[in-house]
Structure of 3-hydroxy-3-methylglutaryl coenzyme A reductase:
Amino acid sequence: MEAPRLYSTKRVQSLKPTKKIPLEEDPTKASDALPLPLHLTNAVFFTLFFSVVYFLLSRWREKIRTSTPLHVVTFSEIIAILAFFASFIYLLGFFGLDFVQSLVFRPSPDVWIAEDEEEENEVLLAKEDARKVPCGQALDCLLPPLPPAAPIVTAQKVFDEKPVTVLTEEDEEIIKSVVAGTTPSYSLESKLGDCKRAAAIRREALQRLTGKSLSGLPLDGFDYESILGQCCEMPVGYVQIPVGIAGPLLVNGREYSVPMATTEGCLVASTNRGCKAIHLSGGATSVLLKDGMTRAPCVRFGTAKRAADLKLYLEDPDNFETLSVVFNRSSRFGRLQGIKCAIAGKNLYIRFTCSTGDAMGMNMVSKGVQNVLDFLQTDFPDMDVIGISGNYCSDKKPAAVNWIEGRGKSVVCEVIIKGDVVRKVLKTSVESLVELNMLKNLTGSAMAGALGGFNAHASNIVAAIYIATGQDPAQNVESSHCITMMEAVNEGKDLHISVTMPSIEVGTVGGGTQLASQSACLNLLGVKGASKETPGANARMLATIVAGAVLAGELSLMSAIAAGQLVKSHMKYNRSSKDVSKGSS
Ligand code: ADP
C-alpha cells in the first residue's frame, strides 16, 4: 500500500518548562552524603532548627536581663549558632530554593512553543498561517458561526464497574455446555439476557475449544448491548484502532478536525500536511453533485420480450409517479429519484435510485424496492424475482456503473494551492506535481486498466474516516473511486488540484454511526445524527468533508513522491524498531 510522507522530521520539544529530575533518583533518601530516609532527615533538621532558635533566644533574653554584652559567647552558644545556620541552609535548600529560583529565573515563554525544524519556513508560514489553533485541537469556525459551546462531558457511560470480568461457577457450567456443543454459542445473549456476560462466556469457550489465547483482545470497556441485533453477532471482544486527527481542514469556509482511525504510520501526518497547504491557500471548495443510494434487483421472464416490456414500463415517465408512491411508502426519508434498467437476455436488472436523508440508505432503498417488486407482481405475474440485489447496484464491488452514474453522494472538491505553499509546505514544485499527476494518476492508471482508480491513495483516507465515523468500511471499494486532476494556473505559478468522487456512501444515522466512539467522531465534525433543519444535510456535509480530506491526502502524497521522499519517510515512520518477530502464543 502506498503511503504518504510526513513534512517534518523534527523532534518536538516538551510543551512545559522542564525541571530536571535525575532518572535514577531515589525519592526516599535526602542525599548520598546523608543516607537517611528523607522524612527522617527533614525531622532532624526541623527539630535542630527550632531547638537552637529557642536556645539562642532564651540565652539572648538572659544576657539582656543580666546586662552581659551580646558579643561574649560561650562554647555552647557558638555550637548553637553553627547549628542554626546549618539547619537554616538545609531547610531553605529543601523547601525554599525552587521558589526563590522561580522568582529569579522566570521561564521564557519560548519554551512553551514546539520548535520547527526549518525556522526560515516557519517564519514565512506563521505570517500566512491563518489557522486559529494548532492541528488537531478543537476549532473555532469563522463561517458560519458555530452553535454556543456545550459543556464538554468527559465521562461517558461507564460500561464496566469491575475492571476485569470474573466468571462465576454458574458461568463455568455454561462454558462447559458451549464447549460440549449442548448450548449454541449464538444463543447466549438471548438465554442470559446479559450481552457482556454472554461475550465473556463465549470468549472463554472459544479459547478452550481452539486452544488459542485471546489475551490482547480486550473484553471489558465496551457496551455489548449497543451492538446487539445491529452491528455484530457473537462478539468475543473488540479491536482497538487508534484515532488520529488531521486538520483543521478548511472546506467551504468551515474548519474541521478530521478523525482518522488507522494503523498506517504517516497517513494522518501526511493528510495533516495537506490540510495545512489547503488552509494556507484559503481553503477548498467542495460541491455535492448528486445524492442517491441505489439497489438493483434481478428479475427473470420466460422471454426477452417480456423482460423488455417491463423495462419500457419502468422507464416510461408516465409511470414514475405511481411507482414512486409505492416506493416511498417504505420510509419518510426514502424518496425515489429514478429507475435505470439493463437487460441480459430474459433477465432484467432494475437500478432504483433514491434519496435517503441522513442514512447511508441501503436498508431504506431495499425496503422501497421490495414494495415496488410486490406491486409489479400484479401486472407482471410471470416475473420471477431472482434476488433483491442483482449486482447492478453495485454494492461493495468495483463497478463501472458506480463510476459513471454515481452511487450515494457524488462530490467534486477543488483548491488552488499557492506556489509558495507548494514549495515551502509541500517541498516540491507546481511543474513536478502536474507532470507526476499526468504520468501516474492518469496515464499510469489507464495503463493498469483502472476503474475509478485515477488517484494516488484516496482509499487510505476514505477507509480511515469510515472506520472512525462508523461507516461501512466495505463500501470503501466504490467510495474511493476518485480522479485527481492537477493543472498549473496563474501563469504557471499556482496549482489547481481537484478530486472528483462519484460514489461516496456515507450516513450519520443507522449502522455503526450510533456507537459511542464513532458517534463521538461524528460529533467532532459537527455532523452527528439526523440533521434537525434539513434531513440529509449532515450526511451530505460528511461527504464533502471526506472529499476535502482526500484532496489533502492526494496533495501530500503526490508531493512526497514528486520530491522523492516517500521511501525515506516510510522507513522512518512506518517501520518500528521493535522486534515483531516474536510469535503469538
Ligand atoms: P440504512 O438505510 O443506512 O441501512 P438504517 O435503516 O439502519 O440505515 O437507519 C435509518 C433509520 O433511521 C430509519 O429507520 C429512518 O427512519 C431513521 N431516521 C431518523 N432520522 C433520519 C434522517 N434524518 N435520515 C434518514 N433516516 C433517519
Notes: Confidence is low (pLDDT under 50) at residues 1-33, 102-147, 155-162, 579-585. Residues 297-392 form a domain with the Alpha-Beta Plaits fold (CATH 3.30.70.420). Residues 331, 333, 356-364, 507, 509-511, 530-531, 535 surround adenosine-5'-diphosphate (CB under 6 Å).
